[in-house]
Specification:
Largest sheet: none
Structural class: mainly alpha
């Protein structure tokens, strides 16, 4: 999200009425060209639909994570998994995009915000590569809990780098969330695993990507956002994948296809949830990933997290939930 697109209080929540108008966001630099037709759906206030869409996205993300770990256990490198996820997610998008292209024509692909799409592609690539690498080598619940710091990083980043106002209550919640990370990592008591560093990298990429998608949904339809992100992810993950490529069996190709399809569909559900309700309403349902992932880790891989890990995870999730709720109150004029 750019400074002009973001709310004045530093919220990483979905764009609100106080954000820069969509027409202005589409204006060309010299002001001479007309903006392309705007096919973005009008804003809606459907909190129950938004919540259901986000909970479904959380379940699909969790299933995808389980497939990633299984494929990594078969010996496929994480960079190669990231490429497979991106490639098949792009393929899964094509049947959804084709009807729109037939109806609207190639003009539907035109956007006046290519730079923002490129930046989001870079952020999403950072998130995907870090996430695949973390899932491949650490327990699923721990990796998931650490990535819940993404909204905390987004809020802190908006204050530190965009000079937006984040007051004491949210800074306190951010500090509590990162205390949860320390509880999970236990530095000094145990060696910090490389997987945890990959998970933190993923959280940073996710935080940036979420901020940018909220800016883009002001003017862009969900299908276009997911399509362009999928294209950029496929191109940007191809190079590191080529460096570690190994021959794949049919089972591995099918697993890669399943990962890509689940990733694309869950991303679409998430983006649609933001179109139907405020982020403060739908984001708490994203935390359903924690119990979903714990169940999958236990059933499929025999992973059981200790009480200390769960305590840290709940601190992170609770802090992120508080930040989202507090930003919603501030945006509505609360103190």
């Amino acid at each position: 999200m750019t400074p002009k697109d973001s709310p004045r209080d530093g919220s990483p929540a979905a764009p609100r009425d106080g954000a820069r108008p969509a027409a202005s966001a589409q204006q060309s630099p010299d002001g001479a060209d007309s903006p392309p037709p705007n096919f973005a759906p009008p804003p809606r206030n459907r909190p129950m639909v938004g919540a259901a869409l986000m909970a479904t996205a959380a379940l699909l993300f969790s299933l995808m994570n389980g497939l990633v770990r299984y494929l990594a256990d078969l010996g496929v490198p994480a960079f190669q998994i990231a490429f497979l996820r991106s490639l098949f997610a792009f393929a899964a998008m094509l049947p959804l995009i084709a009807p729109v292209l037939r109806r609207e024509g190639l003009v539907w692909l035109k956007t006046e915000r290519p730079g923002l799409f490129l930046v989001r592609g870079l952020a999403a690539t950072t998130g995907v590569v870090g996430w695949m690498s973390a899932l491949a080598i650490m327990p699923l619940v721990e990796a998931t809990a650490i990535t819940f710091t993404a909204p905390l990083l987004a809020t802190a980043g908006s204050a530190l780098f965009l000079h937006e106002v984040v007051r004491l209550r949210r800074w306190t919640a951010i500090a509590v969330g990162f205390m949860g990370v320390l509880i999970i990592l236990r530095p000094g008591m145990a060696m910090v695993e490389p997987g945890a560093l990959w998970a933190l990298m993923a959280a940073g990429g996710m935080a940036s990507a979420v901020l940018l998608v909220k800016a883009l949904t002001r003017t862009e339809p969900a299908q276009r956002i997911v399509l362009y992100t999928s294209v950029m992810l496929t191109v940007m993950t191809a190079v590191p994948a080529a460096l570690v490529w190994r021959e794949l069996t049919l089972e591995m190709w099918l697993l890669g296809a399943g990962i890509g399809a689940l990733g694309a569909i869950s991303q679409m559900f998430m983006t649609k949830s933001f179109e139907n309700a405020d982020a403060s309403v739908v984001l708490p349902f994203d935390y359903a990933r924690l119990p979903f992932t714990a169940l999958i880790g236990w059933i499929a891989f025999g992973q059981i997290s200790d009480p200390i890990t769960w305590a840290g995870a709940l601190l992170i999730a609770g802090a992120a939930f508080y930040v989202a709720r507090r930003e919603h109150q501030v945006a509505k004029g609360g103190r």
